[in-house]
Design a protein that fits this description.
InterPro entries: AMP-bd_C, AMP-bd_C_sf, AMP-binding_CS, AMP-dep_synth/lig_dom, ANL_N_sf
CATH class of one domain: Alpha Beta
Largest sheet: 5 strands, mixed
Low-confidence stretches: none
Family: Belongs to the ATP-dependent AMP-binding enzyme family.
Strand order of the largest sheet: 11-12-13-14-15
CATH topology of one domain: Rossmann fold
Number of helices: 15
GO molecular function, one term: medium-chain fatty acid-CoA ligase activity
GO biological process, one term: fatty acid metabolic process
Strand content: 25-35%
Protein name: Acyl-CoA synthetase
Radius of gyration: 23 Å
């Protein structure tokens, strides 16, 4: 019989409660929840899941806004031996239908705002559905359940990724992989004495999930204030009201905060920001550190690496880097043939360790192409310096080849972001008969600022090599973003497709 592995995430949650005891740990929309309430509700929910037929290894969809029920559901699902299958709430019906059928989920926990969409997508499927505020109470009425045995290499989470570049694929992550990544991230955070954080990230994304798991490793009583979704004005009010010290963010969130009248709020309690999910432009990092009086610490990873590969710390950081690889992650930089490159040379970032995914769900061929000889090929370009700091240059698939020269979109975006009127910039390649690809971009301006595309082209031309600067810059009301705040490059490419030019 399988025993409870030492890296079982249900066990990790129980150990955290036993270690830290009862205290006010989570604030959400006017109400505090204690650690005891969260623990007891999760043990009952685990019993409820079992009573409704959920068995070890079953996939359970969690499709909610950021609410306390997410914290409870994750703990309960792991406790029941099932597999957390988070779904971002900004899904179309066909996208959601694909996830439901592909995962073979047997149960789902849903926010009431999403119930109509979910039921339409799940039509004809045998999925026990529990809607918060409706029949979800049936789960929490269950008898408290013990921890269902699972091995360390059993699947703990199935995360769907890649929806902006094609049909979403399921990434299988193990208990140990997520445990190790969470532990590594918590150890990096140990250099700070911050204990009061604001969580605006979608907890259904890999970044948000690993932040939750990281907190379970802490030996300090961490207090979290949860936003239902990111609202920059509300974020500022919550920091001032609760004297919060830190917040994990993605770069576009930082950009939106910088566009707010942040000087109207007392933000003196802030000490640091964590930045992940996408590469942080240097200009935005510098502006955030100056505006909020914080140290911005970057981390790096991908869903397939259990979210975290490297992270900066307050005692070990370097401008432009994403920190050093954490102890659980071995990093190599390789060329197209798979040969390891010397220090300082750009190549594909590969990682090996217990955090590497178990594979892609129902896709052994893609798994074999992505994980070779134990090494996960991330598809990202970067290098290591002589002191072991990792630098991420760009995504391989986003590379623009103009007239035989390589152009990394990030270089162009960083140049455009130096303009005081530009809040967000996105650069892509557009098919071109003369050069193969042409460099084009869109920008979103700081509220109240005005500048046209021609001026921005000239601005970039003075900062970039001749082959790099964008030949078209379009000013938009809003640059397309994904549901987790990353630039949606597919949508940008569609906007700037040949025959759809706008030289404004």
């Amino acid at each position: 019989m399988t025993s409870v592995g030492e890296h079982h995430l249900g066990l990790l949650a129980e150990q955290a409660y036993e270690r830290l005891g009862d205290y006010e740990s989570l604030f959400f929309e006017g109400r505090w929840l204690t650690s005891t309430e969260i623990h007891e509700r999760s043990t009952r929910t685990a019993g409820g899941l079992r009573a409704h037929g959920v068995r070890p290894g079953d996939r359970v969809i969690v499709m909610t806004m950021n609410t306390p029920e997410v914290f409870i559901a994750y703990r309960a699902i792991w406790r029941a031996g099932a597999v957390v299958t988070p779904v971002i709430f900004l899904q179309s019906e066909p996208e959601l239908r694909h996830i439901l059928t592909d995962s073979g989920a047997t149960a789902a926990i849903i926010s009431p705002e999403l119930a109509t969409l979910f039921r339409a997508a799940a039509a004809g499927l045998d999925i026990a559905t529990f809607v918060i505020g409706e029949n979800y109470a049936d789960l929490e009425a269950g008898e408290p359940a013990g921890i269902e045995p699972r091995a360390d290499d059993d699947m703990a989470a199935l995360l769907y990724t890649g929806g902006t570049t094609g049909r979403a694929k399921g990434v299988m992550l193990s208990h140990r992989g997520l445990w190790e990544s969470g532990h590594g991230l918590q150890q990096a955070a140990r250099t700070s004495d911050t204990t009061r954080s604001l969580l605006p990230l979608p907890l259904s994304h890999a970044y948000g999930l690993i932040v939750v798991i990281s907190g379970l490793h802490s030996d300090r009583r961490l207090v979290s204030v949860l936003q239902r979704w990111f609202d920059p004005a509300g974020w500022l009010r919550l920091v001032a009201e609760h004297r919060l010290e830190t917040s994990p963010l993605v770069p576009t969130m930082l950009q939106m905060l910088l566009a707010q009248p942040y000087g109207d709020h007392d933000l003196s309690s802030l000490r640091s920001f964590g930045s992940g999910g996408a590469t942080l432009p240097p200009a935005i990092r510098a502006a955030a550190e100056k505006a909020f009086g914080v140290t911005v610490l970057q981390g790096y990873g991908c869903t397939e690496s259990s979210a975290v590969i490297s992270a900066e710390t307050l005692t070990d950081h370097r401008p432009g880097s994403v920190g050093k690889p954490l102890p659980h992650a071995e990093v190599a930089i390789v060329d197209l043939s798979g040969t390891e490159l010397p220090t300082g040379a750009d190549g594909e970032i590969c990682v090996r360790g217990p955090n590497v995914m178990l594979g892609y769900w129902n896709d052994p061929d893609l798994t074999a192409r992505t994980v070779r000889d134990g090494w996960l090929h991330t598809g990202d370009v970067g290098h290591l310096d002589a002191d072991g700091f990792l630098y991420v240059v760009d995504r391989i698939k986003d590379l623009i080849i103009r007239g035989g020269f390589n152009v990394y979109p990030r270089d162009v975006e960083d140049a455009l972001l130096e303009h005081p009127a530009v809040q967000i910039a996105a650069c892509v390649g557009r098919p071109d008969t003369e050069h193969g690809e042409e460099v084009v971009a869109v920008v979103q301006l700081v509220p109240g600022q005005r500048v046209d595309g021609a001026e921005l082209i000239e601005f970039a031309r003075n900062r970039l090599a001749k082959y790099k600067y964008p030949r078209e810059v379009r000013v938009l009301d809003a640059v397309p973003l994904t549901s987790v705040g990353k630039i949606n490059r597919r949508a940008v490419r569609d906007l700037l497709a040949p025959g759809d030019r706008d030289d404004s």
